[in-house]
Amino acid sequence: MEAYLGIDVGSVTTKFAVLNDADELIAHLYLPTQGMPIEMVQQGLSQLRQELPQNIDIAGVATTGSARYLAGVIVGADLVKNEITSHAVGALHYFPQAQTVIEIGGQDSKIIIIRDGMVTDFGMNTVCAAGTGSFLDHQALRLNMSIQELSQRSLKSKNPVRIAGRCTVFAESDMIHKQQTGHPTEDILYGLCQALVRNYLNNVSLGKDIQPPIIFQGGVAFNEGIVKALQEELGIEVIVPPHHEVMGAIGAALLVHEEVINTQNESKFKGFGIKETTPAKILRKVKVDDNRR
């Protein structure tokens, strides 16, 4: 059975998606990167080998994400694509009429404007973490709760308090002050969700023409408090697609499938057994390739 593999390596999470020849998702993984992108790519491939049928033939592999070039060297990628293209293609596969894609990940966030199936504009935030998932993770840890508990408890808010969300330091100070003045935790948590959404809309999407259908992708889309705050702020329904957390990897797999059809080239995929390759050897290969470029 022929299949196509997409790998999205970010600073916080590493995602894998395997599509069959009909572009149906047959396997996916969502793993923490933990500052070890080489090892996590190796681990992900090892896990996929256990989950996929014995007769699987990877006919094409593509990488995307902030570590896409490194991942491309590790696996023998046939295609390396940026996150904007990959997320747009993934969204359009499931929602052909999509006009806006909101993607909030662990340490960056982006908006993609699509018209008539083509990307016409985009924006990214790669400087401040106040509008990203790592900010929520940090606050959940400080409050001694899981991110899932933060999400659920934020939905119970009756009178959310306004949190200064333009900066992670100010937001944390403001949260502590609100706790000390006796505001219920649920109101503070939903105020935090609202602050993250305001930060996103005032920075990443500033000046962008946000039109429905709006597709919300990335790991932060798991957080129902953020979804609710987005819908309230925009006044428009926000769609969270199935497998939203691996949509970049799905888009990469779709792109390499198209590439293989157009070129008829054999895949350079090194196989699922690259776990035996040491990180030192991989980094030496990356340096050689960088010098050639």
Strands, total number: 10
Percent of residues in helices: 40-55%
Low-confidence stretches: none
Distance between the termini: 35 Å
User: How many separate domains make up the residues?
Assistant: 2
Output the keywords.
293 residues; alpha/beta; Nucleotidyltransferase, domain 5; 5-stranded mixed β-sheet; 10 helices; 10 strands; globular
Please describe what this structure looks like:
This protein has 293 residues and is α/β, with parallel strands linked by helices. The protein folds into 2 domains: 2-85 and 247-292, ATPase, nucleotide binding domain (Nucleotidyltransferase, domain 5, 2-Layer Sandwich); 97-240, ATPase, nucleotide binding domain (Nucleotidyltransferase, domain 5), CATH 3.30.420.40. Helices cover 43% and strands 20% of the residues. It contains 10 helices and 10 strands. Strand 9 (214-217), helix 8 (224-234) and strand 10 (238-239) form a beta-alpha-beta unit. The longest helix is centred in the middle third of the chain and has 19 residues, at 185-203. 46% of the residues are buried. The mean pLDDT is 88.
Write the layout of secondary structure elements.
Elements: E1 2-9, E2 13-20, E3 25-32, H1 37-51, E4 57-64, H2 68-75, E5 79-80, H3 83-94, E6 100-104, E7 109-115, E8 118-125, H4 133-142, H5 147-154, H6 168-180, H7 185-203, E9 214-217, H8 224-234, E10 238-239, H9 247-263, H10 279-292
Parallel strand pairs: 1-4, 4-5, 6-9, 9-10
Antiparallel strand pairs: 1-2, 2-3, 6-7, 7-8
